[in-house]
Amino acid sequence: MATQRQIEVFSAGCPACEEVVALIQNAACPSCEVHVLDMRQTAVAQRARALGVRSVPAVVIDGKLADCCANRGIDEGILRAAGLGRPLP
Fold first, then answer.
1. Residue 9's closest CA among 67, 49, 48?
2. CATH code of residue 71
3. How far is Cα 77 from Cα 65, in angstroms, rounded to an integer?
4. Whether the bond into 87 is cis, omega within 30 of 0
5. Which residue range is the domain that position 19 belongs to?
6. Per-residue confidence at 69, pLDDT binned at 50, 70, 90?
7. Rounded Cα distance, 15 and 18, in Å
8. 85's torsion region: left (phi>0), alpha (psi -120 to 50) or beta?
9. Which tens digits make up the pLDDT trace of 16-50?
10. How many domains does the chain have?
11. How would DSSP label each residue in the chain?
């Protein structure tokens, strides 16, 4: 059983991506493990594609592409509903 929520931020290093990285890092709970992944790396881009990422920035929480990222754009309310900022029970 996982003890930490896994948050992956797929980024290309652009200002919009950096804004989302900051939002995630500020909203993450103490037991959230945040990974910022560079889409310019082939292995990262392949993982992103497998998860359904179509644009960056994109956020994956516990292996699932957040709903806000599936249709482009980031919505903090949707991310929080998906578990961002809350430790696992």
1. 48
2. 3.40.30.10
3. 15
4. no
5. 5-81
6. confident
7. 5
8. left
9. 999 999 999 999 999 999 999 999 999 999 999 99
10. 1
11. --SSEEEEEEE-S-HHHHHHHHHHHHH--TTEEEEEEETTSHHHHHHHHHHT--SSSEEEETTEE-HHHHTSS--HHHHHHTTTT----
- Cα–Cα nearest to 9, from 86, 77, 79: 79
- Measured CA to CA, the distance from residue 69 to residue 55 in angstroms comes to 8
21 is a domain residue: yes
Find out whether 5 and 86 touch, Cβ atoms under 8 Å.
yes
Q: Bridge partners of 60?
A: 8, 65
| Tokens encoding 15 | 């200002």
